[in-house]
């Protein structure tokens, strides 16, 4: 680590700094050799300087936190960078409390930001420093609301520092939650008398959403190794949501609580809409980027107006939030009072607990100064001609191989076409143009030129290419990120050597793939918040089309389908997991027999010997058909984790039914939830024209039918949304 005597400001380009001089003379006798020498901070009286201190949790974001800590210590004076695991932020804030115009960068999730803000309250900073956010957590709703995006990718630290220096300071309302025990009702052993946090920065809620969050936290604490990816976490939330939708545990929420906002009783509204959760929302973002506040009412959310939005949610609305839906608007208020009559799950900023019958008061506490990432000022003259730019695509394999070599990345890119764009267009507008171009170019082709998860690359700001977070596209003009070509990164296009048969994976390896989908348990069932990008395709390969090349030098007929399978498994099970190749597997009646009998050991043994999980009998039924019909959950779980994705939408010869059809017809609720969460289609009709929902209705299982209907609507909305944007 470098030794430095300079405390650098955020505004590095101006060359302005603060001196940190170590005392040359000993001011007291050292008691031991380990005692450090004191130092003094001498700020230069210049209004343009914005000194920065950084608080970072090295454990956040996988190994991102530790790497970023090293980078910050290199770019800044190491004394400006603090490890939150070594005593928290208090010591660092006290050390720099007399520095004027100070800015603070909190690197981590929303909990890290709340921690820093709470310590600022304790120290009574006057005036309090403005806090910026580098999102490394899972939800990152506060970071999204402030324009910093949903997560850190690979943006240069120097650019982040410039954004902090240039960012505007806004105020964030903070709310106090006081909890008093309700003596009229008996507490329970599992409940507690206080909330996990007493200050609300993002949201406070109670009901089904807090119940799901609590289940997630308890499951993660019990088995942390099973919750090591964001997609797995989302799948758990989806399955838990589906279970609550079927069981309807909180349908009587309005009967067990009263709500008073600004002195007005809102309980009748809760009863009218039969809400299963009540959310007090302080910022526009909720639940990892959804927007439950309905803006169509003409009232925009503000973070500094001293008013909090109150929203009702049902278990039918919750999965639709992921597709752009909204909750039920109850009101806006300056204070609220909730009286509960039973133990109810509650959460504050994602920290959940079961709270005994209580009287809860929500009041305004103060306003915190936050740094927003602002949009660059446009200097384009309106009457200038449009830009003609070439759109080029880069694969993830090339991006990772030549990350620091611009010329090699340019050479490895493949052209998708040309677009005409206004010079003052931001990247959100450019994305629409590119999607329109791809749609027109791809007509008549058997595959797609781009996946849904492509992102922009900045090719001109730094010495290397780096990704632009989709949540921040509205903050960048097209002229900010490119000169002649617009470069796109498609993470679906990976290493060509990973396509098809992997030479380093043997079909004889006995791998327990059912452990890979550990979050699907007998007691959990799926919900609709499962990300649409994971929906399984009904085909395993693309038809031959010489005009479409997914990877330079590789024909789509050889790699396209396997590429789709690999990308799904990468997202669900992690990039380190590769199931055995299905190209060399053999059909076996034993696979069908094992599925009929629910013999998971026999199924695993046959699969490890190279027999195909896609084996079918004379009626065209697969192992998934039989295991779903008979409710063999272990077998279904193993097939979800190990079989090719085409198995989900395979239909039999007799009735034209999928496995989901048969599970619904036989009222196998948990199996239905598992299949829906894994991506099985809800809109396929059998030879009689019935969807799985219709078969559930025919079987007189109205709750299962209602669940399938809500997930069918969600799936349809997502499909329509993708069709309009791609």
Automatic annotation (TrEMBL):
<dbReference type="GO" id="GO:0007200">
    <property type="term" value="P:phospholipase C-activating G protein-coupled receptor signaling pathway"/>
</dbReference>
<keyword id="KW-0808">Transferase</keyword>
<keyword id="KW-0418">Kinase</keyword>
<dbReference type="GO" id="GO:0005886">
    <property type="term" value="C:plasma membrane"/>
</dbReference>
<protein>
    <recommendedName>
        <fullName>Diacylglycerol kinase</fullName>
        <ecNumber>2.7.1.107</ecNumber>
    </recommendedName>
</protein>
<feature type="compositionally biased region" description="Acidic residues">
    <location>
        <begin position="11"/>
        <end position="26"/>
    </location>
</feature>
<feature type="compositionally biased region" description="Basic and acidic residues">
    <location>
        <begin position="27"/>
        <end position="36"/>
    </location>
</feature>
<feature type="region of interest" description="Disordered">
    <location>
        <begin position="522"/>
        <end position="564"/>
    </location>
</feature>
<dbReference type="InterPro" id="IPR000756">
    <property type="entry name" value="Diacylglycerol_kin_accessory"/>
</dbReference>
<feature type="compositionally biased region" description="Polar residues">
    <location>
        <begin position="532"/>
        <end position="549"/>
    </location>
</feature>
<dbReference type="InterPro" id="IPR037607">
    <property type="entry name" value="DGK"/>
</dbReference>
<dbReference type="Pfam" id="PF23578">
    <property type="entry name" value="DGKI"/>
</dbReference>
<feature type="domain" description="DAGKc">
    <location>
        <begin position="47"/>
        <end position="182"/>
    </location>
</feature>
<dbReference type="GO" id="GO:0004143">
    <property type="term" value="F:ATP-dependent diacylglycerol kinase activity"/>
</dbReference>
<feature type="repeat" description="ANK">
    <location>
        <begin position="619"/>
        <end position="640"/>
    </location>
</feature>
<dbReference type="InterPro" id="IPR016064">
    <property type="entry name" value="NAD/diacylglycerol_kinase_sf"/>
</dbReference>
<dbReference type="Pfam" id="PF00609">
    <property type="entry name" value="DAGK_acc"/>
</dbReference>
<dbReference type="InterPro" id="IPR002110">
    <property type="entry name" value="Ankyrin_rpt"/>
</dbReference>
<dbReference type="Pfam" id="PF00781">
    <property type="entry name" value="DAGK_cat"/>
</dbReference>
<keyword id="KW-0040">ANK repeat</keyword>
<keyword id="KW-0067">ATP-binding</keyword>
<feature type="region of interest" description="Disordered">
    <location>
        <begin position="1"/>
        <end position="36"/>
    </location>
</feature>
<comment type="similarity">
    <text>Belongs to the eukaryotic diacylglycerol kinase family.</text>
</comment>
<feature type="repeat" description="ANK">
    <location>
        <begin position="655"/>
        <end position="687"/>
    </location>
</feature>
<dbReference type="InterPro" id="IPR036770">
    <property type="entry name" value="Ankyrin_rpt-contain_sf"/>
</dbReference>
<dbReference type="InterPro" id="IPR001206">
    <property type="entry name" value="Diacylglycerol_kinase_cat_dom"/>
</dbReference>
<dbReference type="GO" id="GO:0005524">
    <property type="term" value="F:ATP binding"/>
</dbReference>
<dbReference type="InterPro" id="IPR017438">
    <property type="entry name" value="ATP-NAD_kinase_N"/>
</dbReference>
<keyword id="KW-0547">Nucleotide-binding</keyword>
<dbReference type="InterPro" id="IPR056383">
    <property type="entry name" value="DGKI-like_dom"/>
</dbReference>
<dbReference type="Pfam" id="PF12796">
    <property type="entry name" value="Ank_2"/>
</dbReference>
């Amino acid at each position: 680590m470098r030794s430095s005597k300079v405390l650098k400001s955020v505004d590095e380009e101006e060359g302005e700094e603060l001196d940190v001089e170590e005392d040359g003379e000993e001011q007291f006798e050292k008691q031991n050799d380990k005692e450090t020498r004191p130092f003094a901070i001498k700020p230069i009286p210049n209004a343009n300087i914005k000194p920065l201190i950084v608080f970072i949790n090295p454990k956040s974001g996988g190994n991102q936190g530790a790497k970023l800590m090293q980078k910050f210590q290199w770019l800044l004076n190491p004394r400006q960078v603090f490890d939150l695991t070594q005593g928290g932020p208090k010591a660092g804030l006290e050390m720099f409390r007399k520095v004027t115009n100070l800015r603070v960068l909190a690197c981590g999730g929303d909990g890290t930001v709340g921690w820093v803000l709470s310590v600022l309250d304790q120290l009574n900073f006057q005036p309090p420093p403005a806090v910026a956010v580098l999102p490394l957590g899972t939800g990152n709703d506060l970071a999204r609301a402030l324009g910093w995006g949903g997560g850190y990718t690979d943006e240069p630290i120097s650019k982040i520092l410039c954004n902090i220096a240039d960012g505007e300071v806004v105020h964030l309302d903070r709310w106090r939650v006081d909890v008093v025990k309700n003596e009229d009702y008996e507490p329970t052993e599992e409940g507690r008398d206080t909330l996990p946090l007493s200050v609300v920065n993002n949201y406070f809620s109670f009901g089904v959403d807090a119940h799901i969050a609590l289940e997630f936290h308890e499951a993660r604490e019990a088995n942390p190794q099973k919750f090591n990816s964001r997609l797995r976490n989302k799948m758990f939330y989806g399955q838990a949501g589906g279970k609550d939708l079927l069981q309807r545990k909180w349908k009587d929420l309005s009967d067990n609580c009263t709500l008073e906002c600004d002195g007005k009783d809102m309980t009748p509204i809760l009863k009218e809409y039969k809400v299963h959760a009540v959310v007090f929302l302080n910022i526009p973002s909720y639940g990892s980027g959804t927007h439950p506040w309905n803006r169509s009412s003409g009232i925009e959310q503000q973070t500094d107006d001293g008013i909090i939005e109150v929203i009702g949610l049902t278990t039918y609305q919750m999965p639709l939030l992921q597709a752009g839906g909204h909750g039920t608007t109850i009101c806006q208020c300056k204070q609220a009072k909730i009286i509960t009559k039973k133990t109810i799950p509650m959460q504050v900023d994602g920290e959940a607990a079961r709270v005994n019958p209580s009287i809860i008061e929500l009041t305004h506490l103060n306003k915190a100064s936050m740094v927003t990432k602002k949009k660059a000022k446009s200097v384009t003259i309106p009457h200038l001609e449009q830009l003609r730019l070439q759109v080029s695509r880069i694969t993830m394999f090339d991006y990772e191989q030549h990350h620091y070599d611009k010329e090699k990345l340019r050479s490895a890119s493949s052209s998708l076409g040309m677009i005409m764009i206004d010079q003052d267009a931001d990247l959100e507008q450019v994305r629409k143009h590119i999607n329109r171009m791809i749609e027109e170019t791809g007509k008549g082709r058997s595959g797609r030129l781009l996946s849904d998860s492509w992102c922009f690359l900045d090719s001109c700001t730094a010495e290397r290419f780096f990704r632009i977070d989709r949540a921040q596209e509205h903050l960048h003009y097209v002229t900010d990120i490119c000169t002649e070509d617009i470069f796109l990164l498609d993470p679906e296009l990976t290493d060509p050597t990973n396509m098809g048969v992997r030479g380093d994976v043997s079909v004889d390896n006995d791998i327990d793939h059912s452990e890979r989908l550990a979050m699907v348990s007998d007691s959990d069932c799926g919900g609709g918040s499962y990300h649409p990008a994971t929906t399984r395709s009904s085909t395993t390969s693309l038809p031959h089309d010489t005009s479409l090349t997914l990877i330079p030098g590789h024909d789509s007929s050889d790699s396209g389908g396997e590429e789709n399978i690999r990308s799904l498994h990468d997202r669900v099970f992690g990039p380190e997991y590769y199931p055995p190749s299905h190209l060399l597997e053999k059909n076996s009646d034993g696979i069908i027999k094992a599925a009929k009998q629910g013999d998971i050991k026999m199924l695993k043994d046959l699969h490890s010997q190279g027999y195909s999980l896609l084996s079918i009998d004379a009626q065209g039924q697969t192992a998934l058909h039989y295991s779903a019909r008979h409710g063999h959950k272990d077998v279904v779980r193993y097939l979800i984790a190990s079989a090719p994705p085409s198995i989900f939408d395979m239909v039999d010869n007799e009735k034209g039914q999928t496995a989901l059809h048969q599970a619904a017809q036989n009222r196998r609720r948990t199996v239905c939830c598992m299949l829906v969460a894994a991506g099985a289609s809800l809109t396929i009709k059998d030879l009689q024209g019935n969807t799985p929902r219709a078969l559930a209705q025919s079987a007189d299982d109205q709750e299962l039918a209602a669940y399938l209907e809500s997930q069918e609507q969600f799936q349809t909305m997502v499909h329509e949304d993708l069709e309009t944007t791609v």
